[in-house]
Write a structure and sequence with these properties.
4 strands; single chain; 15 helices; mainly alpha
Length: 303
């Protein structure tokens, strides 16, 4: 009998040959709302952001299905839909931190009431996790990632768990006390605190990969989030409303609105999203199976 791993690793040629219908729908959504977002005058991104990024998510998911015969949406449609819901508070956490940091501000937000801003922003934030995790799965199909050799092993032993927790909490405190100097900690502190918590709670963590010296899932997450970061900044540049940055010390060599060094923040941000997602799905298993995310194909029962 063919096992699940074989089905993931060796989809039939017919499964890999064509973009599925939801991928074509995604392309149409991107084309329409990208055009509208860049050509219409006045306020438009508040209603155009979600359908454009929904289109991105569906397009990427379709490409993943083409390349390996399954994808986030095809494996579990309910979990895929719920990921949009989990994504909302996931990004609102960083908006909460930004009240202290003030590293980014939104031009045009004054045009909306508080309730309108909350609802429209939440809808936009819902696309963050599906976009990043879908693109990470796409990156995981790249041969250079699939063929990466083993790396250093980082195990979830007591020493490492305590060290991660202490470092994460310390970075959070430094960020909140001296935000001008320690603002980069926002992109790593959450991950360092969540990994020990998730491991001790029996939730999925990236330790499961690094304990074997397998860094491919992390590299796929990094690549996926960098690709998303490029498109976030690219599509934001001629949008309105839009976000702009005011980052101390590194505000130079901008690529679109983002200073070039700011793109480094997308690397640890991907890991934080992974931790936040599995924090929620660990406590509410009905929202997603343990190995629902497959940056590198993995069997449900893998160690």
């Amino acid at each position: 009998m063919t096992n699940d791993t074989e089905l993931i690793e060796n989809p039939s040629s017919s499964e890999k040959s064509a973009l599925p219908r939801h991928g074509w729908l995604g392309l149409v959504l991107v084309a329409v709302f990208w055009t509208l977002n860049w050509t219409l005058p006045g306020l438009r991104t508040h209603w155009g952001f979600f359908p454009m990024w929904l289109g991105y998510c569906l397009t990427v998911d379709g490409l993943v299905f083409m390349r390996k015969g399954n994808s986030l949406l095809s494996r579990e449609p309910k979990a895929y839909a719920l990921m949009f819901l989990i994504s909302m508070p996931g990004w609102w956490l960083f908006e909460l931190f930004n009240l202290r940091l003030q590293n980014w501000v939104y031009l045009g937000m004054e045009e909306f009431s508080n309730l309108e801003y909350f609802l429209l922003s939440s809808l936009s934030f819902s696309t963050v996790m599906p976009a990043v995790f879908g693109t990470a799965e796409l990156a995981g199909t790249f041969l250079w990632i699939r063929n990466l050799p083993k790396g250093p092993k980082i195990s979830p032993n007591t020493r490492n768990l305590n060290l991660f927790g202490i470092i994460g909490f310390g970075m959070l405190c430094l960020m909140l006390i001296w935000p001008r100097y320690f603002f980069p900690c926002v992109w790593l502190s959450v991950f360092c605190m969540l990994e020990p918590w998730n491991h001790r709670s029996g939730h999925r963590t990236l330790f499961e990969s690094t304990d074997r010296g397998d860094w491919r899932p992390l590299v796929a997450l990094w690549a996926g989030c960098l690709i998303c970061g490029f498109f976030w900044e690219f599509w934001n540049f001629w949008s309105y409303p839009k976000w702009i940055y005011q980052i101390p010390f590194v505000d130079f060599w901008r690529i679109f609105e983002m200073p070039v060094l700011g793109y480094l923040g997308y690397l640890p941000f991907a890991l934080e999203l992974f931790g936040l997602y599995h924090l929620v799905t660990g406590f509410f298993p009905g929202m997603g199976k343990r190995h629902y995310l497959q940056m590198i194909p993995v069997h449900e029962d893998s160690p």
